[in-house]
Design brief:
3 strands; Arc Repressor Mutant, subunit A
């Protein structure tokens, strides 16, 4: 886990039995694996192609999708590790996003203040992965999933 929250677990044997007895669970997990594989491949390409501020916006949108609110703990050091750039690069990129009014950050906490603006600052990779995710996980076209708890 990369941020605070609740996680569930089960032993491997119980998991295998659930996959055998609940076909929809197996289908959903296979779709999730496909979405995750696509996201990993897209991220690898994105890291070599897009500017740090665009990649940071993409990453923050993905974190926001999974967060329980608009604010969440996130350090520049952690973001630099996740994006494969120096911490100073994150400071510059986050400063640009904050100056534009899309985020507010201080002392290891980031708040999304203008999600549409942040989406406009992100590279196209966020939208591509998000649409594939929504489609493969069964959302109707145009619907917006809420991944927050």
């Amino acid at each position: 886990m990369q941020s605070p929250g609740t996680a569930l677990r089960m032993d491997a044997q119980t998991f295998r039995e659930a996959l055998e007895h609940i076909p929809t669970l197996r289908t959903l997990l296979l779709r999730y694996a496909l979405v995750h594989h696509g996201q990993v491949a897209r991220t690898a390409a994105c890291n070599g192609r897009h500017h740090t501020d665009q990649r940071l916006a993409r990453w923050l949108l993905m974190a926001h999708d999974r967060a329980s609110g608009d604010g969440f703990p996130m350090t520049h050091e952690f973001l630099s590790m996740m994006l494969g750039v120096r911490r100073a690069g994150i400071t510059v990129a986050a400063g640009q996003l904050q100056k534009a009014g899309f985020i507010h950050y201080e002392r290891g906490r980031i708040e999304i203040t203008d999600r549409p603006g942040l989406e406009s600052a992100a590279c196209e990779c966020y939208g591509v992965v998000r649409r594939a995710q929504d489609q493969l996980l069964g959302l109707p076209p145009g619907a917006r999933a809420v991944y927050r708890r």
